[in-house]
Amino acid sequence: MDSLIPFTTSGSLVDCVDRKMLVVLRDGRKLHGVLRSYDQFANLVLEDTVERIYHAGAFAEKWHGLFLIRGENVVLLGEIDLDLEDDVPIGQQVEWVALEPYHKTDVETKKQREDAKAQILYDKKGFCKEGGEGDGY
After folding, report:
1. In CA terms, which of 6, 13, 50, 121 is 20 to 30 Å from 32?
2. pTM, whole model, 2 decimals?
3. DSSP-assigned letter for residue 28
4. DSSP character for 10?
């Protein structure tokens, strides 16, 4: 049966439906949820979705529930192995409000570093400064 499905972006997702997935978006957000549906543009519908942020050995989760993701914003999509999920050390879970300011600082620091690198490449090497926010991928 699988050999009848062409290996395209959306065709390769058929085996992922009803499985827990990790989705990394262009803006850096990391979403965990159950893939319920997709279309030919790789737009995704995740159910029971949580957004997870990390900082210094700790993580926090924010509940989003049903989440529709436009396909062009997906950087990475991977299946989470439920048997191994609990064995992976990811740090201590803390409240979202306690970790969010640190995470925002980390994101802003990374953006400033990337902007500085882009400016140096533009000034000294003639590289183009195309792209907007989240186009670092």
Report:
1. 6
2. 0.78
3. S
4. T
For residue 76, give every residue at least 6 positions away whose Cβ sits within 8 Å of its Cβ, in sequence order, or none.
22, 23, 24
Q: Is the CB of residue 51 less than 8 Å from the CB of residue 69?
A: no
- Nearest C-alpha neighbor of 85 from the set 115, 116, 50: 50
User: Which amino acid, 68?
Assistant: L
Kind of pairing, strands 58-69 and 92-93? parallel
Residue 40 backbone dihedrals phi, psi, to 5 degrees: -70, -15
Q: Which pLDDT tens digit goes with each residue over 72-83?
A: 999 999 999 888
Domains and CATH numbers, the chain: 2-94 (2.30.30.100)
Q: How far is the C-alpha of 21 from the C-alpha of 62, rounded, in Å?
A: 16
Alpha helices in the chain (DSSP H): 96-125
Residue 30, C-beta contacts closer than 8 angstroms, at least 6 positions apart: 22, 23, 24, 51, 52, 53
CA 26 to chain centre: 7
Give the Cα separation of 113 and 10 in Å (integer): 34
